[in-house]
Please model this.
Amino acid sequence: MQIITRIKEMQDFSNSVRGEGKTIVLVPTMGFLHPGHVSLMKEGSRRGDLLIISIFVNPTQFGAGEDYDNYPRDMDGDQRLAQEAGVDVIFSPAVAEMYPKGFQTYVAVEEVTKNLCGISRPTHFRGVTTVVCKLFTIVKPQIAIFGEKDFQQLVVIRQMVSDLNFDIEIVGMPIYREKDGLAMSSRNKYLMKDERKAALCLFSSLRKALALFERGEKTAEKIIKEIKSSIDTEPLAQIDYVKICDTKTIEDIEKIDREAVLALAVKIGKARLIDNVVLKPR
Model:
């Protein structure tokens, strides 16, 4: 496994690999890897000839007062997990390498970023699309893999790839959960013991909502009310949003008469946790 930190070296390496007719798969990460990331890497190994992951805590997707400085980092542990997962190259640039002095170009996807996380984190997706666009031009993958836990992010990336004509296949992978249902996230590290237990209210509320939907309830307002009532019984939980949206436009819908995503964000202690489930009418 190689570790590359310089953009030019990464580009030259990828050009050489593509010149040999090989398929590059990229799994973008911010590090502090967990089994959810490993599931993406294993899928990447299956789909291509060369598996590259990026490890870069991207400052432009963090807003003022967010946890950029405290975001968990463990490069030694990340290297070990990556090697075990069959990664060929880790691309891990410095911030000054990705955003040198005088940097002033950003990529903004407009409509699908306005709802959900875009409401409370208005600059977040501009940072995401900018860094992913840069990773695509540096690593030059034919395939890129993202987790569906960040559902809106996946929609935003797909929109960017379509709009900017990137010749890259975007693959979404199912949410990887702990045994008790909590969606795996690097930010789960922030949770104290009582907060970790409280965090299960996200998954349990989604299960209740899904059961309600499967029994025939199609009114978004009623399902959202059920979720909020469930989460509100947990005193450590503070709701950011609970919404039901069209899976392509990320616009709120009133009646679930097409595929929809039930998405929520809840703050527990220092951790802001997100989760979702896709609702598919019969």
